[in-house]
Amino acid sequence: TNGLKYKTTYMSEYLRRYYGLQTEPSWRRKRSDSSLGDRLRDMQRFFGLNATGSLDSETLGVMKTPRCGVPDVLDYTDNTGSRWTKRIISYNIGRYTSDISPATVDRLIDSALNVWGRVSPLTFVRSFSREADIMVDFAAREHGDSYPFDGPLGTLAHAFGPGEGIGGDAHFDDDELWTAGSHGFNLYLVAAHEFGHSLGLGHSTNPESLMYPTYKRQNQHNLLSREDVVKINILYGRGSLSSTNIGGGL
């Protein structure tokens, strides 16, 4: 029974965080609020699982896969498909991780931004101001927004859609092991995904998309799917490489 209780609690927290499950006591909920089963089916459909509304081992396995902290249902997130209204976007790296050298972090962040710069008219310029459009920070647990990190594994990072203040900012969980290689979590891969959110993209149900919510090691020279390129072009227009060279490596 302890195992079942743990799984149910884990599922409820996951659905609250990523699928808008209301967790108030039933007597406080509006009648229109969706049930646990409905939200679980939403999650199963998103990941292409059997939408049974019950917690099977395959569903639990997906829930336990390390992932981005941005919700999958756009109604419940700050990422609403907004866009920057300028073409030169400033970024700054505030707090660094101690896992890799600052110079390596700088290189990986620059490369991750340029994944999107290559296929759009956007240019990313390093700034040393806390007022930069995209503030990059490594932090653990509670870190000043309303979305505390959860320790190792689980949520790896999150980012906010374009806008003032926290808009555009990307936060990386410093309880993870960040690397430039294949062990731990590859910062370039995770950052390229998060910067998609910083530019206004939501999550994709397509496992080939860089904007798929869960972490996977992939070909670093071809990160973007055709869908990713089309979506960024809809927001900002085409870049010099939109049709010829999708992605790009380090």
UniProtKB/TrEMBL annotation:
Zn(2+) 1 binds at residues 143, 145, 158, 171. Ca(2+) 3 binds at residues 150-151, 173, 176. Zn(2+) 2 binds at residues 68, 193, 197, 203, 211. Ca(2+) 1 binds at residues 99, 174, 176. SUPFAM superfamilies: Metalloproteases ('zincins'), catalytic domain (SSF55486), PGBD-like (SSF47090). The keyword Lipoprotein does not apply. Can bind about 5 Ca(2+) ions per subunit. Binds 2 Zn(2+) ions per subunit. Gene3D superfamilies: Collagenase (Catalytic Domain). Its cofactor is Ca(2+); Zn(2+). Ca(2+) 2 binds at residues 133, 167, 169. Belongs to the peptidase M10A family. PANTHER family: MATRILYSIN-LIKE, MATRIX METALLOPROTEINASE. This is Matrix metallopeptidase 20b (enamelysin). It comes from Paramormyrops kingsleyae.
